């Protein structure tokens, strides 16, 4: 049964002024997110994942302008809201866990002071109630000695503990949507898996949705109900995780990403495993005509290099490709 819709992004297009000229790092991006659903947004570095995530908070880098589209979140179009309303929504309804907790946390304030500030600016809870919420939140984020952690400065905590603090802060006001942007980048693999397990538990909180941004498909597989594959500013495939990882992505880029995973490639019935995706993401100021992935694609022909694809399939399961790969994967891919 389809989840009730929380978010609908429609044709979001973001233009950014850079030294190289104007680029479109987010181009005609459309997707939905259901209440309680976790969607993984995956793609190589520079594909536009972070800017898409920040847009959902109404945050844009200097020099950015929205060239089109809508972000309908819980009944409101975020792109038309005044900054004062966006500030209320941030934290209360949408929050973000960043890649680097070290830079997202204030180094000169204790964890308690930083968490207290969130409650003070958004709620009318008493000092005691806030104190209790802080301890409960830290404990729920898997920090066994919340009192000591709350009295610590960020530099006194390990990277994994800092990320747990960030998660506790993101969840503090019980938002409807949490955006986790590469939350395990700064962590060693064991701690990264613990953080993923924590995020997976967030799924079980009733009504809470998660947009999980990652370049690592094995991480996306662990936590996501659905996958959005992004390349050079566009979503190029959308699929339920079960289909994406068992049958295989339909977009050749998704197949190449899966096959380039460090722990060993997959083997389609027709092809030998790839060791890495050949070539590079084209610069956004110099995209090729036609499909942006065509220069790296083993299935590309003259149609792909000359003509932009159109969507193949419907909402929830679709691919932006002239020649989608419908062959089943030779062997199932297991999470790392
Ligand atoms: N403030 C900025 N000024 C100029 N260019 C930017 C800025 N922010 C992002 N970009 C460019 O926009 C494109 C998309 O960036 P974005 O950070 O959204 O990608 P990403 O997929 O999240 O990659 P990563 O995993 O490396 O963060 C990249 O080419 C990036 O260089």
Automatic annotation (TrEMBL):
What is one cellular component GO term in this UniProt entry? plasma membrane
Query: Which residue range or ranges hold the ABC transporter domain?
Result: 7-257
The record's listing under InterPro entries reads: AAA+_ATPase, ABC_Ni/Peptide_Import, ABC_transporter-like_ATP-bd, ABC_transporter-like_CS, Oligopep_ABC_C, P-loop_NTPase
GO molecular function term, any single one: ATP binding
| Keyword field contains Chaperone | no
User: Which keywords fit this entry according to its UniProt record?
Assistant: ATP-binding, Cell inner membrane, Cell membrane, Membrane, Nucleotide-binding, Translocase, Transport
Bilayer topology reads:
Peripheral membrane protein
The principal localisation class reads membrane
UniProt GO BP: peptide transport
Which Pfam families has this protein been placed in?
ABC_tran, oligo_HPY
Cell location: Cell inner membrane
Q: Which family does it belong to?
A: Belongs to the ABC transporter superfamily.
PANTHER family from the entry?
ATPASE AAA-TYPE CORE DOMAIN-CONTAINING PROTEIN, OLIGOPEPTIDE TRANSPORT ATP-BINDING PROTEIN APPD
Identification of the protein by name: Oligopeptide/dipeptide ABC transporter, ATPase subunit
Species: Leptospirillum ferrodiazotrophum
Taxonomic lineage is: Bacteria, Pseudomonadati, Nitrospirota, Nitrospiria, Nitrospirales
């Amino acid at each position: 049964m389809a989840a009730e819709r929380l978010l609908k992004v429609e044709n979001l297009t973001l233009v950014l002024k850079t030294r190289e000229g104007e680029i479109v790092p987010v181009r005609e991006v459309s997707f939905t997110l259901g209440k309680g659903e976790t969607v993984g947004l995956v793609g190589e570095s520079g594909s536009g994942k972070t800017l898409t995530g920040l847009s959902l908070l109404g945050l844009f880098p200097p020099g950015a302008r929205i060239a089109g589209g809508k972000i309908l979140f819980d009944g409101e179009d975020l792109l038309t809201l005044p900054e004062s309303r966006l500030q209320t929504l941030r934290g209360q309804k949408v929050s973000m866990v960043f890649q680097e907790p070290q830079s997202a946390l204030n180094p000169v304030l204790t964890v308690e002071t930083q968490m207290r500030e969130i409650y003070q600016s958004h709620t009318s809870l008493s000092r005691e109630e806030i104190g209790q919420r802080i301890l409960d939140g830290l404990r729920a984020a898997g920090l066994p000695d919340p009192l000591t952690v709350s009295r610590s400065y960020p530099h006194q905590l390990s990277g994994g503990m800092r990320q747990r603090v960030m998660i506790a802060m993101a969840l503090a006001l019980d938002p409807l949507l949490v955006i986790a942007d590469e939350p395990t980048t700064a962590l060693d693999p064991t701690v990264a898996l613990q953080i993923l397990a924590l995020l997976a538990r967030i799924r079980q909180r009733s009504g809470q949705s998660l947009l999980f941004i990652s370049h690592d498909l094995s991480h996306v597989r662990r936590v996501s109900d659905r996958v959005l594959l992004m390349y050079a500013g566009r979503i190029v495939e959308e699929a339920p995780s079960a289909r994406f990882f068992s049958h295989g992505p339909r977009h050749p880029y998704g197949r190449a990403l899966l096959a380039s995973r460090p722990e060993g490639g997959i083997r389609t019935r027709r092809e030998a495993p790839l060791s890495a995706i050949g070539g590079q993401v084209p610069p956004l100021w110099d995209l090729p005509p036609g499909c942006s992935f065509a220069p790296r694609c083993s299935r590309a022909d003259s149609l792909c290099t000359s003509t932009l694809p159109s969507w193949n399939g419907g909402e929830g399961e679709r691919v932006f490709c002239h020649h989608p790969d419908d062959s089943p994967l030779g062997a199932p891919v297991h999470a790392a």
